[in-house]
Amino acid sequence: MDDVYLQSLAELKKERNALILAHIYQNSEVQEIADHVGDSLALSRLAAEAPEDVIVLCGVHFMAESAAILAPEKTVLLPAADAGCPLAEMATPEMVREWRRKYPRAAVVAYINSSAAVKAESDICCTSANAVQVLRSLPDEEVIFLPDQNLGAYAASQVPEKTVHLWPGHCPVHHQLEAGEVLAAKKLAPGSDVEVLAHPECRPEVLAHADFVGSTTRIIEEVGRSKARHFVILTEKGVLYELKKRYPEKHFSFPARDLLCPDMKKISLQQIVTALREMKPVISVAEPVRSRARRALERMLSL
Ligand code: 13P
Ligand code: SF4
User: Fold this and answer.
1) Residue of 126, 216, 263 best suited for mutating to test ligand 1, as the one with most atoms within 8 Å of CB
2) CATH architecture of 177-253
3) Which numbered atom of ligand 2 lies nearest the CA of 174?
């Protein structure tokens, strides 16, 4: 890594009193310099609790927005302004209002992969780490789950007492994976003690072949708990950096089709330095959307 960038980064971080948070799907050069690397749930908790004045959110737009909603007194920077999430764009506030009219008795659960405006229309948020817990916590028997149909279907399967109306959204990265590709990857994995670990944004027929389903952080923790030595990992390949670092003695395989999120790969070390130097692009959420979205996020965080 370029020492000049590292030097500038260290100086700027100190000068700005900044904290660098990175999602597990980020480029390894970004994960290497981050103060914390985590899943969506961990990043929102850290953003809410951080004492620093500036948060550099190395992830996608909805993650920076969540930080801005939870920590309005801080400056939130997203080093690549165009790093979005196609899944989050599959729901709009108008559509949520329409679904509420269609299912008036249903509570609305918004996956954190949604815009601030959509969160503001929702009763509670969830992440892939706590979707089941969130569903169970609701007093309502009927729920609208948006925007990810696969995570919604998985959570609903774990809480069968609820009627869950699934939004027809999907993550283009995880949804493309097919069951046959999982079987092929499992066959190619060395050894007989192979465990398949999947992110719940994969299709139900893919999850049917998984030994464990969980968020990126939960997948990483499961490798540590498991006695198996070989793992087939069904999520974005950025997790490999942390997996190799934590478990050098274990072996990781991925499906032949690389699951790579182009938006997650938009941030480079150079862009982080530039963002801190120029103090932009800043992500903020205006009132009254911020307060309404905050209610839904805080209801989740309080569980
Ligand atoms: P996590 O909630 O597991 O961090 O996943 C976020 C995401 O964007 C998955 O595609
Ligand atoms: Fe969005 Fe999918 Fe990329 Fe996650 S992996 S940020 S859900 S497009």
Assistant:
1) 216
2) 3-Layer(aba) Sandwich (3.40)
3) 2
